[in-house]
Amino acid sequence: MDTLTHRRWLYQRHPQGLVGPEHYELVTAELPTALSAGEVLVKARYWSVDPYMRINQSLKPTYNALPHALGTVQTAGVVGQVMASTVPSLAPGDWVEGMLGWQTHAKVHHTVLRWLDPSVAPPSTALGVLGMPGRTAWFGLMESGRPKAGEVVVVSGAAGAVGSLVAQFALRNGCRVLGIAGGAAKCQWLREELGLHAAIDYQAHTSAASLAEAIRAAVGGVDVYFDNVGGWISDAVIPLINRRARIVICGVISQYSGGLDEPELGPRFLHHLLYQRATIQGMLARDYLHRMDEMLQVVGPMVQRGDIRFEETVVRGFDRLPQTLQSLFTGDHRGKLIVEADD
Q1: Above 70 in pLDDT, residue 182?
Q2: Which of 95, 116, 136, 318 lies at a CB distance of 3.0 to 4.6 Å from 285, suitable for a disulfide?
Q3: SS3 letters for 31-52?
Q4: Distances (CA, A) of 125 to 140, 260, 271
Q5: Is the dihedral angle over the CA atoms 173, 178, 182, 188 positive or is it negative?
Q6: Cα(98)–Cα(82) distance, rounded to whole angstroms?
Q7: Are 78 and 99 in contact (CB under 8 A)?
Q8: Exposed/middle/buried for 82, CB within 10 Å: 0-12, 13-18, 19+?
């Protein structure tokens, strides 16, 4: 086999608001299969869909020096299987994970790949609980949030890939945990399946003041606020912080569909940080990439023992990737959103 059919989703147009299929182009071409020394040919099986993709499309400065370049493959974490290899450490059929992007195949140097053991956990978990979201949740909570047994931890976006793990890690650390999510079904899942002490449906509230009263009634003050959402949800939580509270800014998904280029007014809560001598810290998963093995040594056994519940919403079909990214901001899903190959 000298070539194979290679399909790629190219990011072609900057979205002003909600990202969707109209911002991408599906390109099909023939990919030569010959490998250079050190290279591996990978067939993608699972593609990740994550909020950071929309951050990278912002025209204003973010944590990247430049926005995602037009005309290039959409960056994404991928789990796939080795088709051919020039290195003894990877053989055909092996499962691997890497930042290979939205494409059906990739020829890459073996050093950008992480070998996966499917006997430990399903390979798809390398995009979720045992991947970037797990790394974000573990280090974001334990190192930035510094939770102590008996403290109150509030998590926004608590039914999402990161939030659901943060909530469970906090529970295992002896904390009282309140999750904020959208919809009664998600809140029921947080309480009954994950065991959170309380869960509040923000969609049942029309103002930050109303949501704040519900949080106060459920847990009183807040010692650690793990924020995945921002916006008026944070306006409700932050006035409730206790002395020496820690606020972890992991994401502001409420602002991603247009609010990054033209941000809302703010911040509106700095006086509360002053009064309570609290700290607020942003965190990115990339800052802990070099400590991935450390996280896996702790969280991996939790997953194997069934101590951690992880949810995957799997959409089948490479053609549905842009639509699935859009649904991350508009749809109703729990846990990690993944697209699975349909062949």
Answers
A1: yes
A2: 136
A3: EECCCCCCEEEEEEEEEECCCH
A4: 19, 30, 41
A5: positive
A6: 12
A7: yes
A8: buried
Percent of the chain with pLDDT over 70: 98
Q: Are 145 and 241 in contact (CB under 8 A)?
A: no
b (16+ CB within 10 A) / e for 171-187: bebebbbbbbbbeeebb
The confidence score (pLDDT) of residue 263 equals: 66
- Residue 141 CA to residue 158 CA, distance in Å, equals 13
Three-state DSSP class for 192? helix
Average pLDDT over the chain reads 93
292-314, pLDDT tens digit by residue?
A: 999 999 999 999 999 999 999 99
pLDDT value for 47: 98
Give the residue ranges of DSSP H helices in 141-291. 163-172, 184-192, 208-219, 231-237, 270-276
Q: Provide the terminal-to-terminal Cα distance of the chain, rounded to the nearest Å.
A: 18
Contact assessment for residue 108 and residue 39, using Cβ atoms and an 8 Å cutoff: yes
pLDDT of residue 343: 81
CA distance 176 to 155: 11
> What distance in Å separates the CA atoms of residue 52 and residue 50, rounded to the nearest whole number?
6
Bridge-based pairing state of the strands 176-181 and 198-201:
parallel
